[in-house]
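During the no-cost extension, the postdoctoral fellow (Dr. R.K.) reprocessed legacy sequence entries with the updated structure-token encoder. One reprocessed record is reproduced below for audit purposes.
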Amino acid sequence: MKLLKCRSLLIALAGLLWISSCMADELTVVVSTVMATYDKQTGKPVVYVIFPQASYEPLLQWSQNNVGKMVELLINSQVVHRTMLKEPLYDRKLIFSDPDWTDLAEANALRRQFVKSPHGQVELRSSSQSN
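Re-encoded structure tokens follow.
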């Protein structure tokens, strides 16, 4: 009986580890601020997405696991933008840009997508797609 309990516990733990590794590629998080502006260094349009302090730990862990990967921003389960994650999100800020954006209108189009997010929640997902 004791052996059966130990085996059941081992199977349950293995299942949880498998599930958590699958979920490590995705993170649902609330957004506190979205702002379209021009990047001070490049002069190109960008969208700053800032996350609340309460999201710091999960956001940092997720970003550390996904540095160097293509990241998708999903709103209402729809991919609205992709970007390469270059470094961990130590400051709770993710910057989206696009080489095709020539003025703030394109950046504002992405910013307006956030209005559609239920309760300010978005999903971040690492993508198998590469640039």
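The helical segments are 2-23, 56-66, 104-113. Residues 2-23 form the longest helix (22 residues). The remaining legacy entries will be reprocessed before the final report is submitted.
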